[in-house]
Design goal:
homodimer; DNA-binding; 187 residues; elongated; 9 helices; mainly alpha
DNA sequence: CTTACTGTACCGTCTGGACGGTAATGTCAA
DNA sequence: TTGACATTACCGTCCAGACGGTACAGTAAG
């Protein structure tokens, strides 16, 4: 019955993200995380030797999950393979539709030290570059990318002011763009 | 020679915003703010009876400055009066061009407690509604609004990954939309 | 014997904020 | 004009509590 290293790690990461969401990103304490995760503080520090490492892991975990999902969607997990832009748009839309912002841990990392977000910055830049390479209309790509960024930040920072019809309007615009960029005849 | 209440308030607010920018939003302490502002901690607490009030003031100050600038630009401070959408786009662009993110205090408030951002959410919703009332093409308004939101969040959270040509591409797209929404013949 | 913890005790540091003081600036009656 | 009192705007000190992190003894499973 004793510990499974991997499952403890995940429980702790999940607990940290949830807590950050409900107590506020700046008030994330190790004691609280340990309690929420159902491990002792000693156990927490056994898995993550410092708070900084926890934060780093939170961010890396978020990125790797997003990247895995993106690859799966792009490869055509349900339905045939789609363009990466379409996959990116759909995935972002799904993420924004979630009730629990899955990236609240990321915000906690920001509160602790903005540098923790550097991996995300790098990931985003690489993603944008790879999308650019596949796109025929860079201007429209930038428009779509910025819109998604806007949508995501609103959700993440609990600033979502859009009505349902406004959001669906934005989404249908994005998906139409993605389809156009994918299908040579649509232009 | 003794204190001017108003100037102390402003010095403190400015110091808090600057500090939040350079020490990280979560590490904003009253002592540090007091030192930076050139007042004692007691003096700080006299002007803002608690940290929460400071944060609130930071956010309100940011909103009111933005709103004042928007009104001035819209009324045609330099050049004739422009549409509010055009003014909004230009103002946001200027804000994003700044080296010092003028809203870093807002991020500090977020770190303390996400609820401090509610006034901003309300302001944004009202702004969007008023722009909508003036717009002939709500879909394009939403696109523009989301793009600006994306641009702003990137700047604010130090996630600005766009190259110069990409940013200017986005800006020229936005300004073209603003002009089109203003000038009935351009459609 | 090792891995993966639990649990407790503890330390040094930092933080918000309460508090008592005080100099300068009004206010106002005599 | 002056003295008495009130208010404003701040200073400097102090403190209880929270926090990150360490140390270490114990334990249950494989």
């Amino acid at each position: 019955m004793s510990g499974n290293r991997a499952s403890s790690r995940e429980k702790i990461l999940a607990a940290a993200a949830e807590l950050a969401d409900c107590v506020g990103p700046g008030n994330l304490s190790l004691d609280a995380v340990a309690q929420r995760a159902g491990v002792s503080k000693g156990g927490l520090l056994y898995n993550f030797p410092s708070k900084a490492k926890l934060m780093q892991a939170l961010v890396e975990d978020y990125i790797s999950k997003f990247d895995t999902d993106l690859a799966a969607k792009s490869a055509g997990q349900h339905g045939g393979p789609v363009s990466r832009l379409a996959a990116y748009i759909e995935l972002s839309a799904e993420e924004c539709a979630q009730v629990h912002p899955s990236a609240s841990g990321v915000v906690a990392a920001l509160a602790e030290d903005p540098d923790f977000l550097k991996p995300i910055r790098n990931y985003k830049r690489r993603l944008l570059d790879s999308l650019k390479a596949e796109s025929k209309d860079p201007a429209k790509l930038i428009v779509a990318f910025l819109m998604i960024e806007g949508l995501r930040s609103m959700k993440l920072f609990d600033m979502d002011i859009l009505h349902e019809d406004e959001r669906s309007m934005a989404l249908s615009y994005l998906l139409a763009e993605a389809a156009a960029s994918q299908d040579p005849e649509a232009n």
